[in-house]
Design a protein that fits this description.
Order of helices and strands: HHHEEEEEEEEEEEEEEEEEEEEEEEEEE
Number of domains: 1
Helix content: 10-25%
Number of strands: 26
Shape: globular
CATH architecture: 5 Propeller
CATH superfamily: Glycosyl hydrolase domain, family 43
CATH topology: Tachylectin-2, Chain A
Bound molecules: 3,6-anhydro-alpha-L-galactopyranose
Structural class: mainly beta
Distance between the termini: 86 Å
Largest sheet: 6 strands, mixed
Strand content: 25-35%
Number of helices: 3
């Protein structure tokens, strides 16, 4: 009996030892994290990132060693927004927002934007007659300027469709593309009734001149994915049986860029049953590609092509496409670049003394180059909320930042720097 008890005790001790061994192994593998094999552990790299001991790499050090781009030529500091003058200055009772890019025609800058009048009531009342969002009941207007400060409003470019059309409720958040001496406006469209589960689509209009007349596509050129399922019939956009693709609810903020002999329509997706993610909304970008500016646009199989961001702000540079990612997600406030327009990597993080402007209308007359890939951000348009009922278009500007030098000291190239 005693012998048997001894045997059992020994067995238990052995099992415990194995158990502890397992615990040790898993603990040390947690401490070690991912393997170091793919990391560049050259002395130069370790020195650059101030890593003392390559045998003990923290998770943060491993991430630093796997950063793909560590130069400083994409960095920008944004100044505070400035008000515009003339017809685009703040106006009582008016929403002017989401400016398009600016192009220069007939010796003037042109911009298109969403315009609506009157108070925003929200979704609590009579949605058939109320204005539910500031961008509800909008038409697309345009304005011109000689200097980008003082603007003359020229009138409506594209108005809402007639009752029953896919755009009968609101047309808004527009972008301009000039290609082969023709002009294309792409924009968001809503069909009545506008409630919180209404799907949002993208429309297109084209013209031979920037002053119109504009011909509208009879159907949307892009639709939300049709694979989400609402739960119940209550108007609650967070209740779903199935969320569906990243763009199952809304396709927003379209912007078409001619690229590699095709047309890349970048857009923001909103998903049915949207969640919060990293303290922001769950917003991602996608791209749809066409052979002709008028479509058909086919969504990329790689969508979504961002894990963060909000309004689309993209420009061609270095034979690829750059994207300013703002507002939502873990990679908000970064500038990213994709050689193929699809696979974006971070090139810079924006300093947040002034967040990067929202809803940027880029100045397409500024051409980014290899030496100054973010030159297009030198100045352009954005918008601000004066309040929930009134919004106005503003001007932003930014400057490149390559070094951090005390006043009177020398910069990394040995030049004395009086301006810092
Ligand atoms: C913006 C944009 C789109 C939305 C609304 C107006 O942030 O993403 O344009 O529909 O808000």
């Amino acid at each position: 009996m005693i012998v048997r008890l001894k045997k059992i005790c020994l067995l238990l001790i052995a099992l415990l030892a194995i158990g502890c061994g397992d615990a040790n192994t898993s603990k040390s593998s947690i401490e070690k994290g991912q393997s170091n094999e793919s990391l560049d552990l050259s002395q130069e790299k370790l020195d650059r990132f101030g890593i003392t001991n390559k045998e003990y790499l923290s998770a943060a050090s491993k991430r630093a060693l796997s950063w793909k781009y560590v130069d400083n030529d994409w960095f920008r500091i944004f100044n505070q927004l400035q008000p515009l003058k003339g017809d685009l200055a703040y106006e009582e009772g008016i929403v002017r927002r989401d400016p398009s890019a600016m192009i220069q025609e007939n010796g003037k800058y042109y911009v298109w934007y969403s315009k609506s009048i009157g108070e925003t009531q929200g979704f609590g009342g009579d949605i058939e007659n109320d204005k539910v969002f500031p961008w509800d009941r909008c038409d697309i207007w345009y304005a011109t300027s000689e200097d980008g400060w003082t603007w003359k409003e020229q009138g409506v470019a594209v108005s809402r469709g007639s009752k029953g059309a896919y755009d009968d409720r609101s047309v808004f958040t527009v972008e301009i593309m000039k290609y082969d001496d023709k002009y294309y406006l792409c924009y968001q469209a809503i069909k009545s009734p506008y409630n919180v589960r209404t799907k949002n689509t993208i429309g297109l209009a084209w013209s031979d001149t920037p002053d119109g007349p504009w011909t509208k596509s009879e159907e949307p050129v892009l639709m939300p994915a049709d694979n989400g399922i609402w739960k119940g019939t209550e108007q609650n956009r967070f209740m779903v049986e199935k969320k569906g693709d990243f763009d199952s609810h809304k396709v927003h903020d379209p912007c078409i860029i001619p690229f590699r002999d095709k047309f890349y329509l970048y857009y923001k997706g909103e998903q049915m049953g949207e969640e919060m993610l990293f303290g922001g909304r769950q917003i991602r970008h996608g791209v749809a590609i066409a052979d002709d500016p008028k479509g058909p646009y086919v969504k990329s199989k790689y969508n979504p092509i961002s894990n963060s961001g909000h309004e689309i702000c993209v420009w061609p540079v270095n034979d690829g496409i750059a994207s300013l990612i703002t507002t939502d997600g873990p990679e908000r406030n970064t500038i990213q670049w994709a050689p193929d327009g699809i696979n974006f990597e971070i090139r810079a993080a924006i300093q947040t003394n002034n967040n990067p402007p929202h809803a940027i209308g880029l100045n397409r007359t500024l051409v980014s180059t290899e030496d100054d890939p973010t030159k297009i951000l030198e100045w352009g348009l954005s918008h601000m909320y004066n309040n929930w009922h009134e919004q106005s278009i503003m001007r932003f500007d930014s400057y490149m930042k390559k070094s951090h030098v005390a006043r009177g000291a020398k910069d990394p190239k040995g030049n004395s720097n009086e301006t810092q």
